[in-house]
Fold this sequence. Notes:
373 residues; binds beta-D-glucopyranose; two-stranded antiparallel ribbon; Glycosyltransferase; mainly alpha
Amino acid sequence: MTVTDRVALRDLAQRSVEIIRANQGPSGAYLASPSFPVYRYSWLRDGAFIADAMSRSGDIDSAEAFFAWCERVVSARVDRIEDVLRRHAAGEPINRADFLPTRYTLEGKEVGEEWWDFQLDGYGAWLWALDAHAARHGRPVEPYLGGAILSARYAAGLWEIPSYDWWEEYPEHLHTSTVAAVQAGVHAAARWPAVEEPLRERLMASATAMRDRVVADATRAGRFTKWIGSDAVDASLISAATPFGLVEPGDPLMAATVAAIEAQLVHDRGVHRYTTDSYYGGGDWLLLAGFLGWQYARSGRTADGFAELEWIASRATSTGELPEQTPDHLIAPEARDGWLRRWGPVATPLLWSHAMYLTLALELGVEVPGRLR
Ligand code: BGC
């Protein structure tokens, strides 16, 4: 790689920090995308990865403002959470509308339009990000503990209920990447000294049950599967190791999962979500190239990690904005126009794409100017 290439990668990492900062509200919430009407809201899933990237870049204030926002959003719904947990424990039926939503306004209010609720992964993912941030910078978790404990109890209490996946689809299944996110968050909370017994023990037992269930039932032919009972692959499965740590990056299960993702979801660089994706024609997702590159970097495949980073950078617009996906190798080209008519051009910039670029750049040792440490 030439010096010029390296400078370009560094500049895009800096641009990513700027774009993320510019789209964080005074409340601490991050917009998923400022220019795409249905994404002008904050998702816990996207936000967790964005806050994690900002924390890695040294922007403690940005990450902590997001965690404080999560804390307030969850705490404000304490009665609803206690009610849902009580009804679930009593075996009573629960309407989807009674669960907490997937996306919120920047002010932490419900959006008031129908969406693909309910999704559980974000309620674990932000705890994972908070825990990693606290460890990375020696910061306390106490300021967020009220909402964090509620979120952990909510996710640990409901994890066996099928929910919409990372892609807001297939609500009738128990999704591997959803359980991985919940497991990571609950496991983190179970190790905080500020969480008292017997809750700590209960959370730890739930996290162990989640891990055991995924390893036993969401695997086939030596690799992870998209959901329990399927044999399909999904690129979100990378998260089972990187970053959610259900298994180590070098675990044979993960090596076989990555091999299946490479065989079925990667053309050259850039990664499809799953083999039958038709959203905007089913393009290559930048944030998934970020996850794959991150997994490569963590398992010693540094050159492949850089190749993913460079591929993402090559898809930036002239103003350094990263889209959600690119139409290089569409799975279902005939489906693209319908989405363009319905919601307009592909979301650009997508903050989650910038977050995964930044995470991968930092993992590979690309220096970000103005980094605080
Ligand atoms: C994706 C979700 C994401 C949301 C906001 C959806 O199209 O499927 O994973 O959270 O956009 O970025």
